[in-house]
Amino acid sequence: MSHESEKSLDRPAERAPDRPLSSSPSAMFVMDHHRRSSGQFSRMAFNIYGLSTNTSPNPSSSSVSHAVPASSLSILPSSASVSKHHAESNKTRLHTVNEILTCAKSNETPNLFVVGGPKALQLVKVAASEISVEYDLVAPNAGSRSNKYGLVADAKFGYQQYGRNIAISTLSGSIHVYNLDRGTRVRSTFSDHQRAVNSIDFNPLSPHTLLSGSQDGKMKIWDLRTKNTKAQLTIRGNSDAVRCVQFSPRTARNFCSIADSGVIQKWDLRKPSAFERKLNAHTGPGLTLDWHPELDYLISGGRDKQLQVWNMGPGSDHQREPDHVINTAGAVSKASWCRGRGNGSVLTTDVATCFLNDDPCIQIWSLARKHVPKNVIELHTNQVTGLVWKTPRYLVSASKDKTLVQHDVSTEPRLVDTLPTMAAAWDSQAGARLTFVSQDRNQFEETEELVPSEPYHPTSPNLVAKARPALPRQPSQFQRAVRSPYALQADIPIPDNDTDVFRFLSSNYLVQVPDGMDLLQVCDYNASVAAAAGRYRDCQVWKTIEGSILWEENDKVVQGLQEFHLEERDGAVRTESRSSLNNSDHLSTSVDSYDGGLNRDGRFGLTANANENENAIVDDDDECSGHATRAIEIKRASDSLARHTFSFTGTSVDLDNEKLQLSGSPHSKYRSKKLSMTQMASLSSSPAKSLRLLPKEVPVSKEPATPWNPVDLVRQAAVYSSTQGDATMCATLALLFGKRYPQALSELECQDWILTYHDLLQRRCLFAVSANVLKTAAMQYELFTKIGQSQTSFRLFCQHCNTPILNEHSKNMWLQDPEIEFGFWYCDRCGKTQGGCIYCNEPAKGACVVLERCGHKGHFGCLRTWFVDNMEDCCPGCGTECVR
Amino acid sequence: MKDTVKPFLTHHEDLVLDVQYDYYGRQLATCSADQHLKVFDLDAESSSWILNDSWKAHDSTIVKVDFANPEFGHLLLSISYDRTLKIWEERFEEPAGSGRRWRRLCTIADSHGPLYDACFMPSHLGLGVGTIGSDGKLRIYCSLDPANLKSWTLVHEIDVLNSSVASHLQSDFSLSWCPSRFSGEKLVVSALDQAYIYYKDEADNKFHQGVVLPEHNGLIRSVSWAPSMGRSYHLIATACKDGFMRIFKLVEKRDNEFEIDLLASFNDHRGEVWKVSWNLTGTILSSCGDDGQIRLYKSNYANNFQCMSVISAHS
C-alpha cells in the first residue's frame, strides 16, 4: 500500500486529541451535562494522566498531571489508574486493572475501542502515540451493581446509525446493549440463551440486526428497533456449541458460524431452517472465523492448529477443501484479516492470529507463504484475547496480561530475514565432500500465477508413483508454483578426498610388524603401498623414515669414527657449529657404512627431492618385492652441496599448503649446509609451535638431534599429516612408532589419531580394518582394550522365534550356580536350541566359526577338517562357495 | 563413489534450514521451514539420493536435525520453533515414503521459547542431547536406559542468560560439543552475542561456565567445535552477524582453567555469516554466508588459516 493512503488513514488519529469522540460531540455533552457540575466539555480531551492522579501513586503520572485540576474530570470512577505509556518507539501500551477478555473497534468513530474484562467495560481511545481510557461503561471496582454480568465473552460496535451502540455478550448467557449516547445505562438486555454467548455480531448492511451464537448450539437474531427482548429468529445449527458467528460484509442476509465440531455453516436469513452450505473444516473445535473485508473468502481457525481459507464466492459450493491451509504452532483462537488495505487478493492480505497455548505471541501470516509467518510479534506475557487491525499499519491487541497494545506492524522485521538461506553439512564418510542447499529467501513466495496441478507427488520424483497414491484433488484446484530448493554436493579437490585411495591405503598399510618382517621392511612395504595408490609424497615419507631408522641402527656402529671425520671436513663447512657438523656427519657416516665403504669426502645424501620423486618410486616399484633394506636410493652427490637436500625439510616445504611460499627459492635455501640448518629451524616452526603447546613437552633426546633422526622425522611426518587431516598416515605412524619413539609422539596424540582413524574406518564400513587397528592399538594402549571389549557386540537372533537371544534368565541362574550350562546356542524365550555345527551337527557352544557368505557356523576344528584337510571350497551345509 | 551426486530437488516447500549426514554417510536428513523432515538414502549404484521418507514433524519451522551415533540405534533428533525436541527412530518394516517410516520416540517440550539448537553428545559420553532455546536455558537430556529410548531425563538445566530475551529483539543461540574423548565433558554455547565454554566439573558433576569467546559484535549464528585430531589445543569457530567468521584457540590449563585466543577472523562473505562447521578431521572449516557462498578455510603448517576455496551454486 502506498504511503499516501496510509497517511490518510492515520489522519483521524492525529486529529483525535481535539475531539476524542468526534462523531458525536453532542453525546459527550449530554453526558457531561447530566453528570458533571463543571461541564467543561473541552476537558474531556485531557490525556489519561490527568485521570490517573486520583488513585495512582505513580510519581511519573502525577508529575504530568499537575496542570490539570483533577477533580474536574472525576466524573466517573475511572479504572484508568494504572494506565501508563511506554517509550517503545513502535508500540503504545495501556495497562488496565483487570485482565482483558475482549476488545472491539468502533466502526464509525476512529480510534475508539471498547475493552471488556471481568466485571469491567471501558471505552478506550487509541491514538497514534498514546492509548487512554475515555470512560468506564462498567467500572471494575464499582460495587455489586456491575457484577451481574459475570465474564464478558464478546463485544461489538454497531454500524451506521447504530454506530454508538455497543453489544456485549457474557458467559452467563445474556447480551447487553449500550448506547454511548445514553451513558452507562444498559439500553436493552437479551437473555434468551441458555448458556454462554460466545460471539455476537452486528450486520454491517442492516445495522439494526444483531446476531449471537451460543454455547447452547443456537444462534439468534435480534432486532434493535423493537423493544421486544425476545429473539426475532432462532437458528439451530446442530447441537454443537457455536464458537464464532459473523455476518458477510457483502450480503445482508448471509452469515457464517463455526462450531465445536469444527464445521463451518453458511446461513441465509431467508431460509433459517437449514444451512446453505456446510464445510467440514477443522478436526476438532473451530474457534474463530473472519470474512475477508473485500473478497468472498473466509478464514477460520481451530484447535487443530490450522488456519483455513475458504472460497465463499459463487460457484464454489461444491468445494470441499479449503483453498489455503496454514499449519500454525498452536490452537488458533483469533484470526483477523488486515482491513483497509484494499489490494484485492487473498494472497497479499495479511492475517493476524493469536493462539490458545501458553505462547502469547501474535503471528501475522501472508497466504503467499504458508510455512513461515511474516512476523512473529511478542507483545504480551499472557494469552492474547483480542486482535483488531486499527489500520493496515497498526494492530491493536488485548491480553490477559492486563494490557492493550497498539503496535506498528510495519516496523517488524520479516521472520524470513532471520533465517539462514544456506545449509551445509560435511559428508561424514568421505574426506572432503560437502552437501549444501543454497536458496533464495523469497523463492517460496507464491505469486498469483497458478499452474494447473500435475498429478500430485508430494515428495520426490525418485519415488515411484505407485508407492504413494496421488491425493485426489479438485480439478478446480491449482498447485502453486513454488521453487523447491536443490541440494548440491561439492567434492573438494584435495588428495584426501579420494575414497578409493583411502580404502586402498587403509586396507594395505601394515600397522604392526608382522612375523618375519622387521620395521624397515614394514616401512618399505608401506612405501610401496603409498606409491601404488599414487601417494608419492607418503611413499617418500616412508622411505625417508626407513632410511633414518637404518641410519639410527648403524649409527651405533660408527660412532667411534665421528671425530676422525670431523677433521676431514672441507673448508666450506668449517664455519658451522659443531652440532650441525655432527649432524651432517652422522648422515654421511651412516650412509657410508651402510654402503660398506668409507667415503672420504662424505657427500652422501638422501635424495628426496620432490622432482625426483617419481623416478625414485618407479625404481622402487620394480624392486619392491619385499626386501626392504635396499629400497632407499643412495645417490652419490659429491659434485655440489646443493645436492644435500633433506627430504623431510623438503617435504615440509613442498607438501605444505601450496599457497604458502617461503621467501626465496628452495634451491637457494639448500645451497649450503648452514643454510639448510637455519632453514630447518624456520621450517620446524610449526611443529615446534604445536610441540610447545603440548601439555607434556616432548623430551629432547640427550644426543644432539640430527634433522634426519627418526624421532624428528616421524614427528614431522605425523604432525604434517595431522594438519592435512590425513588420519590414515597419522594413525599408521602412531601404531608403528608410538611406542618405539615415545619422545616423538605423545601418547595422547597417538590415541587421538588412532581413535579418529578408527572412527573414519567405521564410518566407511571398513570393519575388518578397523578391528585390526583396534587389535593392534589395544596391545599398546589400555584405552583401546576397553573399547574393544566394551564396544564390540554381536547379537544373535533365534532362528525359531526371530527375537534376539538374550538368555538373561539362564544367565542369572548360571551366575548363581556355575554348574549350569550357559551360552547362546539356545533361546530362553522359545526353549529351542539353535542349529548346531554345520559339519557335525553338535550344538556349537563357545567359540565357533561363522562363514561370512552364508552365515552357517561350525566348530573351528570341524571346519578346519572340512576346508583345510578335505580341501573343500564350499559350505558343508548349503554349498555356497566360500573359498576362492 | 567417484562420481559425484547430481544436484537433486529436495521438494521442500520452504527454506531448508539444516542438512545432516548420518554416521555412515548413507543417509541425508533435511529439515525445513515447511515443518517437514525428509530423509534420503544414498543409492550407491546410481549414486543418487532417493527419498526414504518425508513427514510433517513439527508445528513450526524446524531448525535443526542430527543423527545419533549408530551404536545407540537409528535415531534422529529434530527441534523446532514450536518449542519441542523430538526424537525419531527408523522402522525398517515400514515402506519407504509411507510417512510412517520414522516413529517418534519422544517429544520434549520443556522450553519456554523456540528452540534454536540441539546436538547429540559425542558418543563416548553416552546417549544424550544438549538443547538451547530462546529462554536462555541450556538443557541436557540423557537416555539413561538404553532399552527404553522413549524416556529421556533432564540431567542438567543451566541458565546461560540471566533473563529471557527481550521479545522484540532478534535472537539466536547455538551450541557445539567438544568431540574429543581425551578432554572432559564440555561444550561451547552461544547466546545472542556472547559465547561461553561450559565444562563439567567432575567434582560436583555440574556444568560451570568457563571462558568467554571475545570480540563478537553481533548475534552469534553458529558455533562449531573442531575434532581434535591429535592437537593439544582446541579449535572453535563462530559465525557472527557482524560479518566475521572467527576461529579461536582454546588451551586447557589444569583444573578447568582455559585460555582463549583469537586465531583468525575473516569477513570474506561481506555480510552475515550463518553457519560454520568443521570437517571430520577438524582440518577444514566451512562457512556459509549471506552471499550464498561457502568458503573453506584450512590452516597451513604455520597455523595460519587461509581461505582455500569458494563454493557457490549457480542455477
UniProtKB/TrEMBL annotation, chain A:
Function: May be involved in a process influencing telomere capping.
UniProt organism field: Pichia angusta
Coiled coil feature spans: none
Record flagged with keyword Lyase: no
Protein name, entry field: Restriction of telomere capping protein 1
Family the entry assigns: Belongs to the WD repeat RTC1 family.
Biased composition, class Basic and acidic residues, residue ranges: 1-18
Span list, region Disordered: 1-26
InterPro entries documented for this protein: WD40/YVTN_repeat-like_dom_sf, WD40_repeat_CS, WD40_repeat_dom_sf, WD40_rpt, WDR24, WDR59_RTC1-like_RING_Znf, Znf_RING
Residues in RING-type domain copies: 837-878
Keyword Cytoplasm: no
WD repeats mapped onto the chain: 190-232, 279-312
A UniProt-annotated Pfam family: WD40
Record keywords, A-Z: Metal-binding, Repeat, Vacuole, WD repeat, Zinc, Zinc-finger
TrEMBL record, chain B:
Cited SMART domains: WD40
Gene3D superfamilies noted in UniProt: YVTN repeat-like/Quinoprotein amine dehydrogenase
Location of this chain's protein in the cell: Endomembrane system; Nucleus, Nuclear pore complex
Keywords tagged on the record: mRNA transport, Nuclear pore complex, Nucleus, Protein transport, Repeat, Translocation, Transport, WD repeat
Superkingdom classification of source: Eukaryota
Record carries keyword Thylakoid: no
Ranges for the WD repeats: 9-50, 55-89, 266-298
Bilayer disposition of the protein: Peripheral membrane protein
Family assignment from sequence similarity: Belongs to the WD repeat SEC13 family.
PANTHER family in alphabetical order: NUCLEAR PORE COMPLEX PROTEIN SEC13 / SEH1 FAMILY MEMBER, NUCLEOPORIN SEH1
UniProt-recorded name of the protein: Nucleoporin SEH1
Native organism: Pichia angusta (Yeast)
